[in-house]
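User: I'll paste a sequence; please echo it back and then give the predicted structure.

Assistant: Echoing your sequence first, then the prediction.
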Amino acid sequence: MSMIRDLRAVVRPALKRPGQSAHGYDPTRDPATVSAVVDCAVYRGGRRISERLSPAQAMRRVRAGGGFAWIGLHEPTEREFAGIAQEFGLHPLAVEDAIDAHQRPKLEPYEDSLFTVFKTLHYVEHAELTASSEVVETGEVMCFTGQDFIITVRHGGQGSLRALRARLEQDQELLATGPSAVLHAIADQIVDSYLVVADAVQEDIDEVEIDVFSPSDGRSGRGSDAGRVYQLKREVLEFKRAVAPLLRPMQLLSERPMRFVDPEIQKYFRDVADHVARVHEQVVNFDELLNSILQANLAQATVAQNEDMRKITSWAAIFAVPTMIAGIYGMNFDHMPETQWEFGYPMVLTLILGICLAMHRGFRRNGWL
C-alpha cells in the first residue's frame, strides 16, 4: 500500500487555467518523425531499462527478463499498426477501432488484453465568444492493457502523454505495480482535464448569461445572443459525448475485478469514477442552464417585439384621429356643419390636437409609449 500512497500526487499534473501548459496540449506528430511510435520502452522493477526500442525489441526484452513494455503511438496507419497488433496478439476488432478512431469511450475485455477508449478534451481560447466560436476540441486516447504491456494510441493534437510518462518514471515503486498503474494514470489525467475544461465552459456560460440579462449591452431582448447560446449548447453536447459514455467503464474498473488490473490500483479507479460522475453532472446542468438561457432570450425577444408593436399601434391610433376628421371635412357636400362658420377651421384643428394629446397621454400612462 505504501508504494501507491502518493499515487495521485505523482500522476496528476498541477492543473492550471486555460492558456497555460497544464492542459497537455501538444501539436501533431513532429514532421521529422517517420514512424507513428512516439516512445517505446521496457520497465523492470519500476525502472526504465532502455531508451528508444522498436516494439518487437521491447517485447523480446520483456519475455527474456520480465517487466512490461509501454508503447506510445500517435495516429498510426493500418500498415504501421499491423506488426504491433500481430506481435502482441491484439484482437482485430479493437485494432480496427484504434486505427479508425472516432470511437465512443468504452471498455472491452479480450482474452489477451483490456481495450479502453478515452475522449480527450481541450478548451479553445477565444478573445470573444461568438456564434461560431469553437470552445471544446476533442481527441482520443486508446489503451491496450495486457499482462506485460500497455499500448497507447493517441488521435488528435491534444492529450500528449509525454509529461505523464516522465512523471511516472520518477516513481519506481508505482511503475513496479505494472501496466495497470499506467492505465490509471492516463484515466486520471484525462478526467482531471475534464474538470479544467468544465470550469472554463462555466465561465463562458456565466458571460453569456450576464449578457442576455444585462439591459445595458444594447442587445438584450432582441435575440442577438441566441446564436452564441446555441453554439455553446453544441459544444456542451460534444463535451457530454466525451463524458457520459465513460461513466460505466470507470464504474466497472473501480468495482469489478478485472484481469490485467492490479487489485491495489483498482481502488484508485473509484476516485476517477467519482470525478467522471461529477463532471457528467456539471455537463448536464450546463445543458439545462443553456436551455433556460435560450428560452429566456427568446422570451425577451418576443416581449421586445410586442413592445414595438404596441408603440406602432399607439401611434397609428393617434394619427387615425386627424385622418378621420380630415376625411370627413374633405367630402364635397354643400350642407355640412361649421363649413361656413368663421371659427370652424380653428375649432377642427383644436379638436384634432386635443384628442391626439389625450390619446397620447393615455397611452403613456398605460406604458404603451
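The longest helix spans residues 269-329. Confidence is low (pLDDT under 50) at residues 1-34, 216-221.
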